[in-house]
Known about the structure:
By secondary structure, the protein is mainly α. Helix content is 68%, strand content 0%.
Amino acid sequence: xxxxxxxxxxxxxxxxxxxxxxYVVQDVASPKQIPQCLSRFKxxxxxxxxxxxxxxxxxxYSLLQHSKSVELGVKEDALELxxxxxxxxxxxxxxLLMSTSTPAVERKENLNAVKMSVYLLxxxxxxxxxxxxxxxxxxxxxxxxxxxxxxxxxxQWDSEREAVLQxxxxxxxxxxxxxxxLSLVEEEFISCVTCCCYKLLENPTISHVKSKPTRDxxxxxxxxMIKKYNHLLGASVKxxxxxxxxxxxxxxxxxxxxxxxxxxxxxxxxGEVIREIGLKSSEELAREGSGVKAFAxxxxxxxxxxxxxxxxxxxxxxxxxxxxxxxxxxxVCEVLGxxxxxxxxxxxxxxxxxxxxxxxxxxxxxxxxxxxxxVRARVIQVFARIVNSKALxxxxxxxxxxxxxxxxxxxxxxxxxxxxxxxAAFIAHNPYSCKLxxxxxxxxxxxxxxxxxxMKEKLIGKVPVAVIKASELWAAMEPELLETVIAELExxxxxxxxxxxxxxxxxxxxxxxxxxxxxxxDNKYRNAVRLCIKAHRxxxxxxxxxxxxxxxxxxxxxxxxxxFKGSDEDSADVxxxxxxxxxxxxxxxxxxxxxxxxxxQYLTDTExxxxxxxxxxxVINTMLYWKTTSVVQEAVQFCVTVCEFSVANxxxxxxxxxxxxxxxxxxIKDAVVQAYRRLYLNPQGDSIRTKAQTLVDNLSELMxxxxxxxxxxxxxxxQEFFGSGSSLQSTVIQVLWERFTxxxxxxxxxxxxxxxxxxxxxxxEREVVLSNLDTLCSVALGEKVTEDFLLARDTVMTIxxxxxxxxxxxxAPFRLPQEHQLFTALSHAIAEGVVMExxxxxxxxxxxxxxxxxxxxxxxxxxSRLLQRCARLLLDQIADSGEMNKNSVQEGSQDSEQGxxxxxxxxxxxxxxxxxxxxxxxxxxERSVSAELRRRRGETEEREEKDKGPxxxxxxxxxxxxxxxxxxxxxxxxxxEAELIRKICETELLAEENLLCAFLPLLVKVCSSPxxxxxxxxxxxxxxxxxxxxxISPSTCEENLRLMFTVLERSSLPVVRANGxxxxxxxxxxxxxxxxxxxxxxYARLGDEEPSVRQTAVTVLTQLVLKDxxxxxxxxxEVALLLIDPEPHIASLALNFFNxxxxxxxxxxNLLPDIISRLxxxxxxMNSEDFNIIMKQLFSYITKERQTESLVExxxxxxxxxxxxxxxxxxAVSLSLxxxxxxxxxxxxxxWECYSDKLTEPGVYQxxxxxxxxxxxxxxxxxxxxxxxxxxxxxxxxxKGLENVESPEMEEExxxxxxxxxxxxxxxxxxxxxxxxxxKASSSHADDSFVTPRNTRKSKKTMITxxxxxxxxxxxxxxxxxTPKVTTPIARTSRRTRLRN
Length: 1381
């Protein structure tokens, strides 16, 4: 073969005559001839093998040249043939490559075959990929028609793509470089293959799961090219280029770089790519189309795959933390997180690793305060991953925890949610004991701190001793000791020896050795030597003195050295008994101090952690009622986590989220229900009995000391459990009955909790309580009922769960006869308690009377006898106490006042019973009796319908249809029933023959004589009972209304005033026309000096206003004052009032001008700071542009009537709080004359400058020029005065500016005043009442009056002629009544 195939730059170069021996295409077949050529190619491939490509290359070239004209099937056949050629070459080449004696011609033929086949396969693949992508764009999904045929080849190409890559990988995995001279593969050939790979990567679906085989094939093919064919630099450049244009490739290239680094060992690719990304400047990344998102996603993904390989290049990436791109900052922080989690963790790090770890943690902590909320949220998520992986060092727990708690106040919702999740992770993986609160940790910490202080003082107080080794001491004493030994070995007197021998005969060898060592330390050498010689005689078999078998100076010195210095092997036992040296003592003390320091540090960290947890719980508990659903869900999940880990105070959040079961948001309600089910209704245990006991214990703990509202919320969850058909139900109910009856020993609180849980179960199944009614009566309402009225009250509440009022039954009412044991026990308990002073009797009595009216037949008769019985008992007690007082007075005793005090309490209890009976009697008539009348009437009508023949049914149907169309069906009967109930209330309930009538004068007397009846409980009970009597009829209400308001205003008892507000609120709902003139007196209680009264007043008025019972008037300014109330709870109630009021159309908008004027009244004396706080909150509800525009005009007009500088300043501040737009600015310009003469005041000028600054932000150039011009005008008037600035020339300039200014369509307004006035008079806007008209006359009054004040309201006083009259009757007629009239 005399020619070489050179890979062309473009396909057309192959037909041009090139260099010497260069292959040129000779025969280009037409599109019609190509199928025949392919058939010959196929035949020769079968016979000759892959080398036939040398003769049929022109066929492949012709296909590429006419690709647009050739059918898709022909292309697929050609692709299949080329795949077979490449696969055949991959099979035949290994033998050639391994041979060392291959002829050059054969090698050249194989090289040309490889080049030709690879070139054709790559180009054809690129062409098919382009066609496939183009077809996916042109052909819409699900569409048929003509374009359906063109898309038939797309699925085949998707499957063939994998075969192409597989064949190329098989070929290039061979070392085909030896086919080239000097193994130098030309760049064009490598580019041909790699370009095909990159072309395939541009497919939008390459990152999908279904494309994984194709993706893996491309990655491995490129890996081979990088490793064997020097494609490293080209690949790194191509990765950057493709990331800039194809964002979906970020995860693909991250996986590719990971594979190339690990499987192919080309780690330099990471450095090249990271360096290219690091060199990107902030300005370049800020440009659109820079691929910053793809770069960030690539780094994040790569960090999760090979974090250990990124550490050498992290300094390049950290530069992006100072850049403007928050996306890159996020990615770098995620990379740091992955490195900390998977590489720089554990205790085995060297010093360099620890330094890097600390540096990375410092960087992440800094970016917890990043300017961008996305970065802050992602960094918190990174820390959550670190904590969950237990990779956070103990020394950083407190610091990161503190920063996270601070992020709970972040303005970004995502940051807040991430912070809650991180705190939950901290608690779940904390190394401390969360069961202890900070209060419990204080005492142990102080104790250990004081102990550490004593140890340090003791250590410092010791005389420092030079640390000298025993060997050094021995060397120093050895010469002198040797002389002493020699001297002692000389003969001596026997008497001295015998004398020494008599001493210490009872000592053992160890004790003797210790004495010898001590003598040597004390320089008593002679005694030491003598003891050693003596010990040899006494303990000849001892290991210590075994060296003295032959007594000589050498053996004696060796023994003394052994005893003094010790031996690593032989003297272990001896050294334990030797006295410690000063060095050892000091070392031991220092180690103890270090241990104590570690303990103190641990307790300190634990306390700091506990404090942060308590702070976090307090903050997150407030988030349970945020408006953002996702935040509430995270807060609920956090409360569950802290409760599961038994964190101190965790139960507070669990109880606080309980009312959310009534949330209108289904997601929040479901989250709370699931939380309680997870915490309390899914107990763990080995048996059903154990699970039931655990469940009851959990619910009982939750109900102990719970409020009535909490119990009502818990009913919803418990009722769902008992209605779910759980296998635990019967066992749970059995355990509850055992606790209540005392079969299982339990506390009184848990006994009452079990009782209430039985009542909740009875709401789902009445028989739970009804079948055990006798047990309830005998246990809780028996002879010992007076000992525990709380248990009796809860028993009554449990029995109430079986009544129709709770179950809303539609059938015949379920009632028990008067002679039933239950009512006998209740009557006895009430009568016995009325003459006692039990503080819980009152609540029991109220529930008992309620149950009697719900469950008894003819409850009025039963309660009448009960009242008579109680009154008789009280009279008997008064008579008895009177006799005792009479006797004591005769005997000179002074205890008469005490007897009166006791009778006052009893009288208060009797009056409370009367009021309760009166209230429930009215409720019984209007609910139970009325409902029974309707039910009976319905049954009668049904019977009449059945009795009527079919002939009359048609006529009746026509009549009923006509009545229904007119709204009159059943109207007559219902009105008759309602009239009957009203008549009974007005004429019979307080008639002389009715027992209630006898108590009304007594109530009036007690309430109207506070000086005589000064007992607090009596006054409270009397006022409450009187208000309940006033509910009976309008006449009773009118007669005693003035007395009630007098008590409300003049009573010295806060509880009386608070109860009075609640009672009068109920009366306002029942008799609105009677209470309407007294509205001002209700609002007056908002300024009460007692916080509890103010709280009650704002709660009651909120309900009345929001339910449209009370008309919204100017007194709303009194509610606005509560926004700055010193009591946070009252301020939150006021805020809630305005939040709810803002949902009503234009309510706050209509009231704002009047509220501003009332609050800025000089007589009120409000300081400017409080005024600004209130106005800032109220103006936050003004969001509509038209409202803002109108308010600008109204507030500007008020400048004319404002008389003091303070009022001018308040109006200017109010203007600055509006979110003003271009239209509002035009209004401000038009009202120049209203405020221009006040601009010399800084308090007016500065707020207007603030408005100009707000308008300038983000404004267009032309509008910004107008704002600047107007600001210059303001400044000129402020500095020089209005009279020195205004001139005809400036007026002409202003008129020109107004004509040329761009503005939205507005009613045309001219400069002359008369025209302006005419336009204002002609406009019929609903808010014109707030615009103060210009008046040339001076007002005689010093106070400011407003046109929005509809009436002058006066305070209620005792005189009859000053009693408010009804001015605005409120009609309460129904639709049927109006139609009938």
